[in-house]
Amino acid sequence: MIDKENVKSIVEEWLKDKEYFLVDVDINNENKIVVEIDHADGVWIEDCVELSRFIEEKLDRDAEDFELEVGSAGLGQPFKVAQQYENHVGKEVEVLTAEGKKMKGILKSVDAPRFVVTIQEKVKEEGKKRPQLQDVDHEFNMDEVKYTKYLISFK
Question: Where are the alpha helices (DSSP H) in the chain?
Answer without folding.
Answer: 4-15, 45-58, 82-87
